[in-house]
Each structure stands twice: as C-alpha cells, then as structure tokens.
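User: Here's a chain of 156 residues. Predict its fold as tokens.
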Amino acid sequence: MKLVSLLSERRVLPEIKAETQWEALDECVDHLVSTGHLPAESREAVLRALHEREEQVSTGIGYGVAIPHAYCEQLERPLAVLARSGAGLEFDAPDNAPVHVVILLLVPSSQSQLHLQTLASIAELFSRSGVRKRVREAGSAREILVALGHSEAEAA
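Assistant: Prediction complete.
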C-alpha cells in the first residue's frame, strides 16, 4: 500500500509543535481525533499502544525518520498522518540523529499482513535520500503530498 494513498492534506502536519517523541505522538493522535479520522474514545487506547510499542523498541528508523505504529481495533482501514519537526525530535533512532519526519501508522487489528507490508514500503521509500529531501523542502501539506506521490511513482 502506498503511503500517499493513506494520507490527505488534512493528515499532513507541515510543522508540529512537539519537542519530544511523546508529545509528537500526542499531537498526531489528537489531530486525528480533532479532524474526525479517529474516534475520541479510541484516543487513550491508541496512545497506550503507541507508547508500548516505543518502549519495546524505537520506531526511529534512522535518516531523520520515525514510523510509530500500532493496531487499532476501532479502524476498518489503515490510517496515517505525516508530521514534520523542523527542530527535530529525539526518537532513540539507530543512527542517533534527530527525527524530522514522523509517519504515524494505525492499522486495524485484523490486518497484520497489510501492517507489515505497509511498514516495509514506508521504510524503503524513506531510505532514499531524495525522498527525504523532497519531503523536508516541501512547504505546504499539498506540496508534501505531491513530493511523496512523485517519489512513489518513481519507485514503481
């Protein structure tokens, strides 16, 4: 599944206020709730699942990118939000670099295979320096989506 198909302008945050990885998770989940993409009653369970995942092993993949992810029983389809941090966030990434791009992925509990495939696809996409550069340099949510769309088309 392509990342751009999981996003929309309303699910791209060009500049988050968060100063820590935990604040970034809160900000992304709160955004999904406030825009109606995630039921408010799911907020705590989703945050708990994301925190538990981060405590097992960091979802920082290196290159300034993190892909926090969790299963969500209340969802029927995968849901993602992309957030950028100009200042960078400590995410305990393997390269110890600050994270500037956070791609939060929530997947229905029944779709574990899709979850793994989507994570692998996102990680592969962001392993390319040109993709990271395009996403960091894009100004608006729309420009970020266009940059991702072009990058995914080139990879196909």
